[in-house]
Amino acid sequence: MYPVSARFLPRLAEPHRVITEVLLFRTDGAVAALRHTGGSVSVDSKQQTRRTCTVASPDVSMIPTTPTDSLATYGARLRISRGVDYGDGTQELAPLGVFRVDGVDGDPTFGPVTLTGRSLECVVADDRFTEPYRATGTVYSAIAALIARSIPDAEVMFLVADTAIGSRTWDVEGDPWAAVQEVAAAAGAEAFCNADGVFVVAELPDLLSTQPAWTVAAGEGGVYIEGKRGMSAAGVFNAVLARGENAADGVPPVQSFVKDDDPGSPTYWDGPFGHRPMFYSSSTLTSVGACRLAAELKLRAARAPNATGDFSALVNPALEPGDVLRVVHPDGLRELHQVASFTVPLEPGGGMPVGTIAAKEDA
Q1: pTM, full prediction
Q2: How far apart are CA 276 and CA 269, in angstroms?
Q3: Model confidence at 108, in pLDDT bands (50, 70, 90)?
Q4: DUF5047 domain spans which residues (predicted)?
Q5: pLDDT tens digits, 238-250
Q6: CA 234 to CA 240: how far, in whole Å?
């Protein structure tokens, strides 16, 4: 969860005045607070571009009418935040993301104007390779170089140990962001752009060893609105065989097989779920250890959809994918859920739909 003060989360369950901020960073260097009447930010860890936004504004000057306007608008960025006014002269905002403006549309005379954008992974993904691209060295250096070729001043935060990778060449038209994810997998990590617009390389938090970041409880003083629980075997695997081979570097084949060995898991390898392995290979994997990290990463994602929960809660703009939540249903059932997706509205009132994975009963 994004770091907030000790009084932020409790205030969400109490009556409070919602505040939102949308800052527009134009390509000509100008920065301005954008008047807005609504919109939303959607966050989904399963998507290549993790965050998307829609902002409604009465400012018809946002619609480009000249080539100069177009140059200043397209490629511009939005920084969106939502928070609370404590009523004592202080306010607190939590960032929802930094977005490249991809669309501006509306009535040029009366408005409103709708702006759409995507978080900065899209800048890297859209900068397709126009010639073969070769990565080598370590996870840190390879990812930093891939991102810097598209965003030279990007900030990259590594929350995993660095590790050597085998050389890997991507063809013309290849997707650089997919390349970033492939390199990150060699360290057992995933890459994404966080709410501050910083690129992060980190492991997916483990549901059972991570302290819940927020309690979503039904009843008086709680933030729970409604929810449901389900299970599905579609797209679920309970083992991963990760392999690496790099003839160009003279590295012999290596591999690691990781399975769900938890007898209490519904996808236990030797349980009634049966054997459902998946396979992953990359020339960046040059050791058994790297293969194991990649296999563990893929397995956490591959078995997670088996248990799902979707619920609505009062809006929490500090939420992040991967957060572990303690959910207390109206009947008293307690579960731990890991956040996969959610949508934060820019208007006050209403709820926030949250999609989760890897639900477990909470003792």
Answers
A1: 0.86
A2: 8
A3: confident
A4: 39-166
A5: 999 999 887 777 7
A6: 16
